[in-house]
Design brief:
By secondary structure, the chain is mostly helical. The protein contains 14 helices and no strands.
């Protein structure tokens, strides 16, 4: 029963995060990009902070000391602000499916950053090949034209790649900081801090503030879905599954989510995934399998042992 529960929650999480890219594309018709991302995390941060205060004991919902606030700062700047600012701006000129596939490179980049920042843990030749394979997948999807490297579509995909890189680097740095901060607290304060950073960026970019446009039903629906379903519910599911499944299995959600993105994007936005994008996705998944080959082998052996006992 627990196995079916985990599988159901895994698919639910993939659906929440996969369809989030479609909600972003829909909301960008009504909101300026960075402000849209900031509003999303205004709401999600408040919800997560309330959840942390309700579920944690004493004052565990509040960070203490330099290390705990350092983790929050990294989360706010890289995991929330940089990731979503790059993603939302980039997704203005690319499809939801292409964005979801490019973001799926994040687990590969996370391994690359982790090994680069810990020299004693350097990647093997095969591991380097896996990272390069993932990057080739990005190049296939982006299709850069050397004669026009400032083409809107290429720049958009490059920005989404920067989003994936920001998230990967932030994930590594938060793990390197020695802090015993509850994950709910870290996420809540990172969301609120990231929202403040994005509000500042939005003001610096001179994005228009037009509340009248935000009352459109599609705008309100996209914002509510991203804040409450993709962010608040999505992260709660992620934390639960991370504890039950471990990092290797939960990373696989990055490769299931684009399937939901492609289906819902086609149904709601009329976006079609071309063969080149599918090829790039296959290369990224292959890169992940090469980089994580030992962990995947151990995971498969573990699953086989469980099934053999039943």
């Amino acid at each position: 029963m627990s196995r079916y529960r985990n599988f159901g929650l895994f698919l639910t999480l993939a659906a929440c995060w996969g369809t989030a890219f479609v909600a972003i594309s829909a909301g960008l018709e009504h909101f300026p990009p960075v402000l849209f991302a900031a509003l999303r995390y205004d709401v999600a941060g408040i919800v997560m902070l309330a959840y942390a205060a309700y579920t944690l004991e004493g004052d565990e919902w509040l960070p203490h000391g330099r290390d705990e606030w350092a983790v929050v700062a990294v989360g706010a700047v890289l995991l929330i602000a940089a990731y979503h600012a790059f993603l939302f701006v980039g997704q203005q000129n690319t499809t939801a499916a292409a964005a979801a596939i490019l973001v799926s490179l994040s687990p590969v980049l996370t391994t690359g950053f982790a090994r680069a920042l810990v020299p004693s843990d350097a990647l093997s030749v095969v591991g380097v090949f896996g990272v390069v394979l993932g990057l080739v997948g990005v190049a296939v999807i982006s299709q850069p034209d050397p004669a026009d490297l400032l083409a809107p579509d290429f720049v958009a995909k490059l920005l989404v790649f920067c989003a994936a890189a920001s998230f990967a680097l932030g994930s590594v740095l938060t793990r390197r900081i020695d802090a015993s901060l509850p994950i709910e607290t870290m996420e809540a304060w990172s969301m609120l801090g990231g929202a403040l950073v994005m509000h500042a960026i939005s003001l610096g970019l001179g994005e228009p503030i037009e509340p009248a446009a935000w009352t459109h039903p599609e705008a309100l629906g996209a914002l509510a879905y991203l804040a409450l379903v993709a962010s608040a519910l999505g992260f709660l599911l992620y934390f639960d599954l991370l504890e039950r499944l471990g990092a290797v299995e939960i990373n696989m959600v990055s490769y299931v989510a684009p399937i939901f993105t492609a289906i819902v994007g086609w149904l709601y936005l009329g976006e079609v995934v071309d063969a080149t994008t599918l090829l790039g996705f296959a290369l990224i998944v292959a890169g992940f399998a090469v980089v994580k080959r030992r962990a995947l082998r151990e995971e498969f052996d573990h699953v086989n042992r469980i099934y053999s006992r039943e």
